[in-house]
Specification:
By secondary structure, this protein is α+β, with helices and mostly antiparallel strands. The chain has 3 domains: 78 residues; 76 residues, Elongation Factor Tu (Ef-tu), domain 3 (Beta Barrel); 53 residues, Beta Barrel (conserved putative lor/sdh protein from methanococcus maripaludis s2 fold), CATH 2.40.420. A hairpin with a 7-residue loop joins strand 4 and strand 5. The protein is rod-shaped and about 160 Å long.
């Protein structure tokens, strides 16, 4: 492009000026010779030579004009140069992209925890080459049974521990609940933020988490193993009243791993039989101190 602008175009313009000057001289010479030939002072040979020189000058002028036109913006040589420049830029971008494929850069700071490739190895596109544990906030990722989805909410507090350090608890907070369900496992993905992770916590560790889904003050609770049909719409317990076993429908509140809150149906001090008991309704029964 610089050659067209700095050399070819100025040269062609200079050639055009020279051709135009030659044409002007040829036109003047032909005019004089034609007058002389008309008066008999010039021969036919001289007039033919002047006509020939004029035709040659006109042809050279047209050629010089075409050369100037093709070297200016919009002309064929200029367009060809632009096309070649565009192709060269595209080739450069392609080469840069290919060079980028040969370099693997970490998307963020972190600790490299796995490496599945050695220097100089040929790899396939899409293959996992390196595993990175990124720096930043620590999160716990859980798969919780979808039946418990209604009990979950963002910002719920939790207590967690790694199975390898079961006695060392640390706090966490529910920060994400996946809007979809894993059909294969009938579970929902939940993530918890850990503001102050313990030093022993590692990537892919197995952890146990207790999420506080509710809190009740002065709650009346019974052992969870004493509630019949706890997951149905009509839970009940077997009580001892007046020396006999009585089936008593109840309304449940919060349910933990070991204890279940009773909202209605049982009073403080009632004796509740475990589900494993073989006592039938109406049978004589007597409570014994544990």
């Amino acid at each position: 492009m610089r050659q067209l602008e700095e050399l070819s175009l100025p040269t062609s313009r200079a050639s055009l000026k020279e051709a135009q000057a030659t044409l002007l001289n040829a036109e003047q010479t032909y005019g004089r010779t034609a007058k002389l030939a008309a008066s008999g002072d010039a021969t036919r040979v001289a007039l033919d030579a002047a006509q020939r020189d004029l035709d040659v000058a006109r042809t050279q002028t047209r050629s010089a004009q075409f050369q100037v036109s093709t070297n200016t913006p919009g002309g064929s040589d200029y367009v060809t140069g632009e096309t070649q420049l565009t192709q060269a830029q595209a080739a450069l971008n392609t080469a840069k992209s290919r060079l980028g494929y040969a370099q693997i850069s970490a998307p963020r700071a972190g600790v490299l925890i796995t490496r599945n490739v050695e220097r100089g190895a040929v790899v396939q596109a899409g293959a996992a080459l390196l595993g990175l544990a990124p720096d930043g906030p620590t999160q716990l990722q859980l798969a919780i049974d979808e039946r418990n989805l209604s009990k979950l909410a963002l910002q719920q507090k939790a207590i967690a521990s790694a199975d390898a350090y079961a006695s060392q608890k640390f706090a966490a907070v529910v920060s994400y609940i996946n809007p979809s369900i894993d059909i294969a496992r009938a579970s929902v993905e939940v993530k918890l933020d850990v503001a102050d992770p313990p030093a022993y916590l590692r990537q892919d560790m197995t952890v146990s988490v207790d999420i506080e889904v509710g809190r009740g003050e002065n709650a009346l609770v019974v052992p969870g193993r004493s509630v019949h049909d706890a997951l149905s719409a009509a839970p009940w317990v077997m009580l001892i009243r007046n020396g006999r076993a009585v089936k008593q429908p109840v309304r449940l509140g919060l349910q933990g791993n070991t204890l279940t809150e009773i909202l209605d149906g049982v009073a403080e001090g009632d004796f509740v039989l475990p589900v494993s008991s073989t006592v039938l309704e109406g049978a004589r029964a007597r409570a014994a101190a544990p």
